[in-house]
Amino acid sequence: SRQGLLAFATQSGGRDVLHVYDLNARRIRQTYGFDSLAAVYSPSWSPDGTKIAFSGIGLSGFSDLYVFTLATGALDRLTDDPYDDRDPAWRPDGSALAFASDRGPDGESGATNVFLFDLRSRTIRPVTSGPNHDQTPEWSPDGRRLVFVSARRDSTGAFGAHDLWVADLSALGGASMASTQRSKS
């Protein structure tokens, strides 16, 4: 976080817990456990440092997105479905989360794509689509682009090397998919 705090998950008593570590004081400031969750992954601080988004596996075995509010201890489950939702990343203005999921039409064949969860309307829109492994989205500082890692299928049908791709979200104004381009290495 901008306040010098690190959020990370570890095992404790057979379930994952979320720790908040103070980088300046070099100590764990707080530990949070969630009775309804068996696992916690990919914590991400909100831009104002008051909330942490993460992927959590519920006792049902499904991976969904959650937002935890530190001041109140409230846990908000954003998605509640059989899809595998991962790697949430806050938009710099705090209005949305980008995340990876197998919820697209190619998800049954092992593909993951990048999606946006609008926190105000609680709607989900695709950013990418197709039989790819699009994952770990990160926002540009101005919130207009997403960078993500993607593996594409090669001529044998296997997923090839991972490349960085950029999605220009200005294309999302009226369209459902952003334009993407591979980064030059």
Detailed description of the structure:
The chain is an all-beta fold. 0% of the residues lie in helices and 56% in strands. The chain is built from no helices and 15 strands. The strands form four sheets. The protein has a four-stranded antiparallel beta sheet, with no helix packed on it. Strands 8-9-10-11 form a four-stranded antiparallel beta sheet, with no helix packed on it. Mean pLDDT is 90; it is low at 174-179.
SSE order and pairing:
Blueprint: E1 5-12, E2 15-22, E3 27-33, E4 37-45, E5 51-58, E6 63-69, E7 74-77, E8 85-90, E9 96-101, E10 113-118, E11 123-126, E12 133-139, E13 145-153, E14 159-168, E15 179-182
Antiparallel strand pairs: 1-2, 2-3, 4-5, 5-6, 6-7, 8-9, 9-10, 10-11, 12-13, 13-14, 14-15
Structure summary:
By secondary structure, the chain is mainly beta.
Major sheet summary line: 4 strands, antiparallel
Secondary structure tally, helices: 0
Shape: globular
Poorly predicted tracts of residues = 174-179
Distance between the termini: 29 Å
Helix content: under 10%
| Series of secondary-structure elements, N-terminal to C-terminal | EEEEEEEEEEEEEEE
Task: Give the rounded overall mean pLDDT.
Answer: 90
Strand content: over 45%
Q: Tally of extended strands?
A: 15
How do the strands of the widest beta sheet line up side by side? Answer: 4-5-6-7
Oligomer: single chain
Radius of gyration: 17 Å
Structural category is mainly beta
Notable traits:
185 residues, mainly beta, 4-stranded antiparallel β-sheet, 0% helix, globular
